[in-house]
Amino acid sequence: MIVTNDLIKEAKAIEDQLVSWRRHLHQNPELSFQEYETAKFVAETLKEIEGVSIQTNIANTGIVATISSGEGKTVAIRADMDALPITEKNEHGFQSNNLGVMHACGHDAHTTILLGAAKILAKKAKEGLFQGTIKLIFQPAEEATDQEGLSGAPRMMQEGILENVESIIALHMCPWEPVGTIQMNDGYSMANVDVFHGKIRATGGHGGYPHLGTDPIWMLGFFLQAFYGMISRKISALDTAVASIGQIETGTASNIIPEEVSITGTLRTYSPEVRDQLAKEVEQAFKVVESFGGSYIFEVERGEPALNNDPKVNEVIKEAAKELYPAIKIVQKPFGLGGEDFGYMTRQIPGAMFFLGCAPQDGISRDLHTNIFDIDERCLPMGVSILAESALKLLKQD
User: Fold this and answer.
1) d(Cα 252, Cα 255) in Å, to the nearest integer?
2) 138, 44 in Cβ contact below 8 A?
3) pTM of the full predicted structure?
4) Which domains does the chain have, with CATH numbers?
5) How many CA atoms lie within 13 A of 46 on its CB side?
6) From the first residue on, what is the mean pLDDT of each consecutive set of 10 residues in the chain (398 residues)?
């Protein structure tokens, strides 16, 4: 309990520094795999903390900092660093300096909180208050993928960052809950994210003589009925599954029936079994066009796997949060059907992510990925202390 009380005091003591770090990062956002200045800032800040060893240039701009104190387990804490291609509309005095780029998902806060945890945990190691190793993973490119379709998490994993790590934790900003609240969920909590690309092909022809050819736009109507009926009639209502079309492209002129229609959409699921089933059902919807003289091409681009929170790791986080803040409100429900590439890490080793309440008190809805996203910075020391205490507890866990 003495360590727990000290953590709260120490996190509170560096609150001004946390705010300064977060605002610097917010003003200087960088897109996925381009986080050069962000990585430089993180590395320079870590070098000022005694007892932290640093590896840089992992997956291009990623950083792993290590704090060791004797023999024992190895646990990891992960934060993402990249921003989004969004033009900020906030007027709080520390707006983005990079036009068209914004920290609209809270990664500036995630990075800041992990830096704060590094400072406190290094002090605990120096005082001999824990045994083992804590890895601090500053990850690039959570929001986007490279030319091979991989985001920052699998890229860093390919370079061995999780070798010998027994468990891993992370947090995410939660703009729908106020400071003093965390949201948690056991098991699948965020979605498998897949993109499908399909084409309906026909002969096309002259707009004045449609009877002489086959029309993919006409066939599109039957496909859409099959597609949108699929979820309610082919997938169990007890399963989590969403299929949405985001793009339909075709045609060159008003009097030309095109030869093909291109269709692109997203598939969101929780379980691996439903992930496979949903892709098969979408392809079956495309097959409808064969009855009308058409053909189709269909492929699925698999993205990050569903975030699967380990119940035992979650229990440790919950215990840490309650011991630190007895009045904290814990909301138990999934985080939704957004994607999170931390799911790659929790697929390899036991891990969990919790959402940290950060809603500003201005009464304005500032959702993730919007141009007015913002946080109540009082959440920063709370995030630091919960992550640090959770890591210490995981090291002691049998």
Assistant:
1) 9
2) no
3) 0.95
4) 2-190+306-396 (3.40.630.10), 192-302 (3.30.70.360)
5) 28
6) 75 98 98 98 98 98 97 98 98 97 98 98 96 98 95 98 98 98 98 98 98 98 96 92 97 98 98 97 98 98 97 98 97 97 98 98 96 98 98 93
